[in-house]
Design a protein that fits this description.
30% helix; globular; cell membrane; four-stranded antiparallel sheet; binds adenosine-5'-triphosphate; binds nickel (II) ion; 262 residues; six-stranded mixed sheet; alpha/beta; Rossmann fold
Length: 262
């Protein structure tokens, strides 16, 4: 069953060029896709292809000069600005790409606790810190005192304790060591297995494929194809699009199958 549906979404930015002349740049074009309960959808594609903007459009946190058209539905209901506000951080949680999303003036333990909706906040926060190997003293720190990897683990923790039904994770793993990456990906898998849905935006196709059910390949602001994860194997012959094949074959471990070899 589909929890979140994106229907013909376009996003453009109005920018002033010289003087008062306006220029509109479309950064997402006629994009349709869905998140299904119980599934992880990995989203892969080049830098600048619109992955983060799609996440922000779903959450309703695009910059104010962005114009959108199309519809996004949660549980069949069309998302309005008001509904997005109500669902944000509650039914739909974001693991943002940038650690600047953390509140610089709030201790990180408190930030995680404010996201807990069910059960005891303190307990949930302690448990999730333990899970992500964050020492007890970290809860009293401010974001500026954290390393990049610690800040990222705080962002993942915040989404994990929220009790949301949809998690949109925008590059949640860079800078993390392999043990924590595995832990986070396993948690996303468990989360999906409980009947929730995950959108996992990642440059790390190899890791994403370990847990994803389907992969959406992004290019130039739209989805080229959505393929079952198992189609990413061998030479990539089961992938439909040249770009998807190229993306897959460009991975270091696939050099062996590259035609240029010999
Ligand atoms: N506020 C903005 N105003 C104008 N253009 C923007 C704005 N934010 C993003 N863009 C443009 O939209 C495009 C998509 O950006 P987006 O951040 O979604 O890419 P991405 O796929 O997430 O890239 P990355 O993999 O590097 O995170 C880029 O070309 C970017 O320059
Ligand atoms: Ni991005």
């Amino acid at each position: 069953m589909s929890i979140l549906e994106v229907d013909n979404l376009s996003v453009s930015f109005k920018q002033y060029t010289s003087g008062l002349r306006q220029h509109t740049q479309e950064v997402i074009s006629n994009l349709s896709m869905e998140l299904v309960s119980g599934e992880i959808l990995a989203v892969v594609g080049a830098s600048g292809s619109g992955k983060s903007l799609l996440a922000h459009a779903i959450l309703g946190i695009l910059p104010s000069n962005a114009q959108t058209s199309g519809k996004i539905r949660f549980d069949g209901e069309v998302l309005t600005t008001k509904l997005q506000e109500q669902l944000r951080g509650k039914e739909i949680a974001l693991v943002p790409q940038s650690v600047s999303f953390l509140d610089p003036l709030m201790r990180v333990g408190a930030q995680v606790r404010t996201s807990v909706r069910k059960g005891k906040a303190k307990e949930a926060q302690k448990k999730v810190f333990e899970r992500y190997h964050l020492k007890e003293e970290v809860e009293n720190m401010y974001p500026f005192q954290l390393s990049g990897g610690m800040a990222r683990r705080i962002l993942v923790s915040t989404a994990m304790v929220s009790g949301a039904r949809v998690i949109i994770a925008d590059e949640p793993t860079p800078g993390l060591d392999s043990v924590v990456i595995k832990e986070a990906l396993t948690n996303f898998r468990e989360f999906a297995d409980q009947g929730c849905a995950v959108m996992l935006i990642s440059h790390d196709i190899e890791s994403a494929l370990q847990v994803a059910d389907k992969v959406a390949v992004f290019y130039g602001g739209t989805v080229l194809e959505i393929a079952p994860a198992e189609n990413f194997e061998g030479n990539g012959d089961r992938l439909q699009h040249h770009y998807s094949k190229a993306l897959w074959r460009a991975l270091p471990q696939n050099d062996f199958t590259c035609e240029f070899k010999n």
